[in-house]
Amino acid sequence: MSDSSPEVTVLYFAGASTATGTSSERVRLSSPGPQPLSSLSSLLLSLHPGAGLEHVLRTCQWSVDAEMVEDPDSVLLKGGEEVAVIPPVSGG
């Protein structure tokens, strides 16, 4: 039986890129049906255990297909999306 779970492309910026050691990766979602964006955090943490990503994800902003997301529970990932993890930016 083949795994029919959809994939998304995750883009990592700043501290998220440092924690994961990459700027992007393809991630297979945990089930074939649509999933809330908010469920992606635990999946990313399982792919990068002990990398310090938990702190970054707690304070990050998300974008899906270049649109900023206000409420990660309200956005459903169906596969094929480009999801960006954007840590807080400090200016000076």
UniProtKB/TrEMBL annotation:
<dbReference type="InterPro" id="IPR003749">
    <property type="entry name" value="ThiS/MoaD-like"/>
</dbReference>
<keyword id="KW-0547">Nucleotide-binding</keyword>
<dbReference type="InterPro" id="IPR016155">
    <property type="entry name" value="Mopterin_synth/thiamin_S_b"/>
</dbReference>
<protein>
    <recommendedName>
        <fullName>MOCS2A</fullName>
    </recommendedName>
</protein>
<dbReference type="InterPro" id="IPR044672">
    <property type="entry name" value="MOCS2A"/>
</dbReference>
<dbReference type="InterPro" id="IPR012675">
    <property type="entry name" value="Beta-grasp_dom_sf"/>
</dbReference>
<dbReference type="GO" id="GO:1990133">
    <property type="term" value="C:molybdopterin adenylyltransferase complex"/>
</dbReference>
<dbReference type="GO" id="GO:0000166">
    <property type="term" value="F:nucleotide binding"/>
</dbReference>
<dbReference type="Pfam" id="PF02597">
    <property type="entry name" value="ThiS"/>
</dbReference>
<dbReference type="GO" id="GO:0006777">
    <property type="term" value="P:Mo-molybdopterin cofactor biosynthetic process"/>
</dbReference>
